[in-house]
């Protein structure tokens, strides 16, 4: 418990000094010891005992000490603030004191963000440090929460203006002084209370900004169902408030990331899932359900995401707009952005704000405005982009949550995809907005610009699997039908069942627009990863010849090969996304292999292509799998066109060789282990299984196992590979036999029934050493190590 405060001037304060105060002074009548006070206050802050607040000192003592230490009078102001903020106070004097404290801290906060968040030192930002050390943060929390106290049945009230000052001071202290945000995050009742302050428009922005920072460091996720009257609160937000609120929602509905790589392994994820089943829904899932229960919530998000710039507020006070920008960007970034926009604007008339050049001084440091001033169009566009990012992120998370089917139906009904298509050129892919845009709380290396966030949305699995044809317009849907008719194959049922009133309008659908910008993107651009992922999501699932031809006709295959071969792309992420996309584009498609052979028309080009494949099988194994599956299907078809491709295609000829397959198989098994399996590299295990399943179909499974054994011996490590493979297959059974979604994906992508997958794994794991298709038959007894626990290192 903290020591009971002693008000300055009270009887206790006049009659004697506390032991702590005496010690600080170095005894009765002594001089203050430099640094001793701060040291004891810091100790009291950590332990909750001893010196913890300014009220434990007399005003005379604080004034005397301030002369030497230059505390800017902050401890004395806190002493007065405590005296004037008692329960029966009218808070008038209290607010005046806050007005004195506020500029002392806000100047340091501005300096902090201007210096790009350099490591904070107490000596660098003394005012905020002293304010916190003398109990200012705890005092403001108490003042803010006074309305939760009832006196004779009536709750206390404080003005919005006073709440606003308290919130601003708290935020500035959090910005400059390490540890303050974490301490506030530990006060769960205070965090919940903050949500109630968002009911007032006057305090909304300051509250939302503070909540966002607090939730960003909070160890345990807050539960939105504990927020009083959540539904009413959110329903009463205007569109701008809802957009800002999405920044908070982004933290409350996303599963918390521990930051430990081991937690991302499939072993750890499976263990966590088992634990979650016993514990019930996570806080993130509860929060998602709470939001979806709010009437009209998803509809409003869709409207926000697709609202045109011309519909946004055009006339507003510059100060009000600056305040809104503050919630999107840190202070210095706001000013930089405003000056940059100002310099870009060539017209300075009554319809736009007159900005001073950088470095020019104006009264209060702000541009002159009038009630009729209007923000420059480029500034409004930037503003629109920034809140749309937050809205799209929230929709992405909801699309992948437990209620994804419900969300899927709603975003289709509210025409989100056609709306995004209409904004594509104007907002989503504006070149000028991507380079320097950095969101609040992010850095220059984040994928926080509009493009990755938009592409992440379009590649969201649940959405694309069920609604992918909404990415097209009516003319493009007709083109798919014509492709099926020409090939004399049944039209895709999902195309027939697509509600044409919900698809994109205009000359091009969203998918086609994406292909166009993809071709124009620089070879090493990180956006290429997201672009390829988004397009691949359109092809993912059951292979559709019409979908593949739709993209082939638009030159996608040639573009991918150019990036892989001619530009010799070095980015591993981009290469992986291109190999995955190329595999989906070519799988079972004779026309695609003909196009491939036409482009890779020399041995030199083919060798560059193989070099890229072999440089990292984790990245290229999905392509190897698709080509292997395609080869198997083509070999079983009687068709002149197929026979021609088989005889001419370098890639098919290369994959058809047993030594090539064995080389891939050996390396695929060797680069993964149960303890290191992740969602990214588990595909290597499934690709190795595909090779062996196809060998089993041809009664060649014993041959392939025997060759693996020989390769082991040639490496002088008998048993090391097959033991590892045995453990991997045991894990495979545990992982896939209890996850319907993953098994369906395996079946759809390979066109091999899941029962055949299971049978093959069971045959390989047969404990009978006399079985020619069992792994144990090829592991010599001295090297047998197949029963190791998965968690064993």
TrEMBL record:
Q: Name one Pfam family in it.
A: DUF3689
Mind telling me which InterPro entries this protein's record contains? Answer: TRPC4AP
| GO cellular component terms listed in the entry, alphabetical order | Cul4A-RING E3 ubiquitin ligase complex
Q: What start and end residues bound the annotated signal peptide?
A: none
Q: Which domain of life is it from?
A: Eukaryota
Its GO biological process annotations read: ubiquitin-dependent protein catabolic process
PANTHER family annotated for this entry? SHORT TRANSIENT RECEPTOR POTENTIAL CHANNEL 4-ASSOCIATED PROTEIN (PTHR31743:SF1), TRANSIENT RECEPTOR POTENTIAL CHANNEL 4-ASSOCIATED PROTEIN TCPC4AP (PTHR31743)
The name this protein carries in UniProt is Transient receptor potential cation channel subfamily C member 4 associated protein
Gene name on record?
Answer: TRPC4AP
């Amino acid at each position: 418990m903290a020591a009971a405060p002693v008000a300055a001037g009270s009887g206790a304060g006049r009659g004697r000094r506390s032991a702590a105060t005496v010690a600080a002074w170095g005894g009765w009548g002594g001089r203050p010891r430099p640094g001793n006070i701060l040291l004891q206050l810091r100790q009291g802050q950590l332990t909750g005992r001893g010196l913890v607040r300014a009220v434990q000192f007399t005003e005379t003592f604080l004034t005397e000490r301030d002369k030497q230490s230059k505390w800017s009078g902050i401890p004395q102001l806190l002493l007065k603030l405590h005296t004037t903020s008692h329960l029966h106070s009218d808070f008038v004097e209290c607010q005046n004191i806050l007005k004195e404290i506020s500029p002392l801290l806000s100047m340091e906060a501005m300096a902090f963000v201007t210096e790009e968040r350099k490591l904070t030192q107490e000596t660098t930002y003394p005012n905020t440090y002293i304010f916190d050390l003398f109990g200012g943060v705890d005092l403001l929390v108490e003042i803010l929460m006074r309305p939760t106290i009832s006196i004779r049945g009536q709750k206390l009230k404080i003005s919005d203006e006073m709440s606003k000052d308290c919130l601003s001071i708290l935020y500035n202290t959090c910005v400059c002084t390490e540890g303050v945000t974490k301490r506030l995050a530990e006060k769960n009742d205070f965090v919940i209370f903050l949500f109630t302050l968002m009911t007032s428009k006057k305090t909304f922005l300051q509250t939302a900004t503070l909540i966002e920072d607090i939730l960003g460091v909070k160890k345990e996720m807050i539960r939105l169902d504990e927020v009083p009257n959540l539904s009413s609160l959110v329903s009463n937000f205007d569109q701008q408030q809802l957009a800002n609120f999405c920044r908070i929602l982004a933290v409350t509905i996303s599963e918390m990331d521990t930051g430990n790589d081991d937690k991302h392994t499939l072993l750890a994820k499976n263990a966590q899932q088992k634990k979650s089943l016993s514990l019930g829904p996570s806080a993130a899932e509860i929060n998602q359900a709470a939001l979806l229960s709010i009437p009209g919530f998803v509809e409003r998000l869709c409207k926000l995401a697709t609202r045109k710039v011309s519909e946004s507020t055009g006339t507003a006070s510059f100060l009000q707009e600056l305040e809104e920008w503050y919630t999107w960007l840190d202070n210095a970034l706001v000013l930089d952005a405003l000056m940059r926009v100002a310099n870009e604007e060539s017209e300075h008339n009554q319809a736009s704000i007159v900005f001073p050049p950088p470095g020019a001084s104006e009264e209060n440091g702000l541009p002159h405005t009038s009630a009729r001033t209007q923000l420059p169009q480029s500034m409004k566009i930037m503003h629109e982009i920034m809140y749309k990012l937050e809205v799209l992120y929230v929709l992405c998370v909801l699309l992948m949550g437990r209620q994804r089917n419900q969300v899927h139906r709603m975003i289709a009904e509210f025409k989100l995809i056609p709306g995004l298509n209409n904004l594509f050129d104007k907002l989503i892919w504006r070149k000028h907005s991507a380079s320097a845009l950095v969101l609040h709380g992010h850095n220059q290396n984040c994928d926080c610009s509009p493009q990755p966030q938009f592409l992440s949305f379009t590649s969201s699995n649940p959405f694309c699997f069920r609604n992918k044809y909404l990415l097209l317009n009516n003319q493009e849907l007709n083109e798919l039908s014509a492709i099926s008719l020409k090939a004399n194959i049944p039209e895709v049922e999902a195309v027939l069942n697509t509600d044409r009133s919900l698809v994109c309008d205009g000359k091009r659908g969203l998918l086609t627009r994406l292909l166009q910008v993809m071709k124009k993107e620089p070879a090493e651009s990180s956006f290429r990863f997201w672009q390829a992922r988004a397009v691949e999501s359109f092809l993912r699932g059951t292979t559709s010849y019409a979908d593949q031809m739709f993209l082939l006709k638009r030159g996608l295959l040639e573009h991918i090969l150019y990036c892989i071969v001619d530009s010799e792309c070095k980015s591993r992420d981009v290469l992986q996304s291109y190999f995955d996309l190329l595999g989906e584009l070519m799988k079972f498609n004779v026309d695609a292999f003909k196009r491939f052979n036409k482009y890779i028309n020399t041995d030199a080009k083919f060798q560059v292509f193989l070099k890229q494949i072999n440089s990292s099988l984790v990245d290229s194994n999905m392509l190897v799998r698709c080509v292997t599956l395609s080869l198997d299907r083509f070999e079983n078809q009687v068709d002149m066109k197929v026979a021609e491709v088989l005889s001419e295609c370098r890639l098919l000829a290369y994959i058809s060789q047993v030594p090539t397959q064995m080389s891939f198989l050996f390396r695929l098994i060797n680069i993964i282990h149960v303890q290191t399996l992740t969602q990214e590299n588990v595909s290597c295990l499934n690709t190795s299984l595909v090779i062996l399943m196809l060998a089993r179909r041809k009664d060649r499974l014993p041959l392939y196992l025997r060759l693996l054994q020989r390769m082991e011996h040639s490496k002088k490590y008998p048993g090391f590979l097959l033991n590892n493979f045995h453990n991997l297959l045991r894990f495979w059974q545990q992982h896939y036999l209890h996850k319907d979604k993953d098994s369906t994906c395996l079946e759809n992508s390979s066109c091999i029934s899941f029962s055949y997958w299971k049978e093959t794994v069971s045959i390989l794991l047969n404990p009978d050493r006399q079985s020619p298709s069992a792994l144990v038959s090829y592991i010599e007894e001295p090297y047998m190590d197949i029963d190791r626990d998965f968690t064993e290192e």
